[in-house]
Amino acid sequence: MRQALIEIAGQRLSYTVTGPPDAPVLILVHGFLSYQGVWEDTVSCLSSSYRCITLDLLGFGDSDKPALGDYSIAAHARRVLCLADTLEVTRFALLGHSLGSQIACYIAARLAPQRVTRIVSVAGVVTGQLTPVVQFVSYPQIILGALQPGWYVLWRWLAQHPVYAAYMFRPWFYRMNALPFEDWAKDRDMALQPGIHIAASLTANAIRSTDLSNDLALIQAPTLILFGRQDQTVPVNDGHVAAAAIPQAEFTLFDECGHFPMYEKPAEYQHQTGTFLGLR
Fold this sequence. Notes:
This protein has helices spanning 40-46, 73-86, 99-111, 132-147, 150-158, 162-168, 185-191, 197-208, 236-245, 261-264, 266-276; strands spanning 4-8, 11-18, 25-29, 51-55, 92-97, 116-122, 223-228, 249-254.
């Protein structure tokens, strides 16, 4: 189905709805520097049983990127709920990746626990503290790009070359050649697209300033936590923290897998997710 636009507080978000109109709803929330296309194979797998709603968070994908936008985790979460309300969705399951999981858990713990039926958390941020390579290499680059957006022009050009892309995106994968270089070209483009520099910097600050450790016990929805054992973006310990704190949690580690299980371990990821969501 084609992407559509919704306007929330004067800012446009891009979203897509796929699947039977009478099926239970699953809202899929992408991660930092990502976009709704990351869910393409997931939606193909689930949309026969779920009405899948994907969106580009404010500042990312094809959504607006206002310099003065509110990029806090709370604001991102409220916009997800506003989209659900606009589509007249009362109850829904949530599937979040990385930042998207942080947003999903914020919704389930703080904003609308009664509306969330299930959660799938993929490489989910909990404490806000990411790995050293992100904190000391990636974040400084993002700050530099916010101050001098011209760097993004150079980075976009360099990201077309495998050697540089392997350096810049190395926290994403256990093996950089886990999938063909061209298969994740759109992911690179979305991470470095024009206009993303302010949103990236402010959202990075939001991730770091939101620690959900003390809120997870409030989540009552059954929750599946999936992590790559070799995740170089979000510490695997965040998965253990979530599994210990959420009352109805299941935890699975994929070996030889980094931050994107949907790309590096697609069969295992789809099996775990589909089984948990009870594909019919």
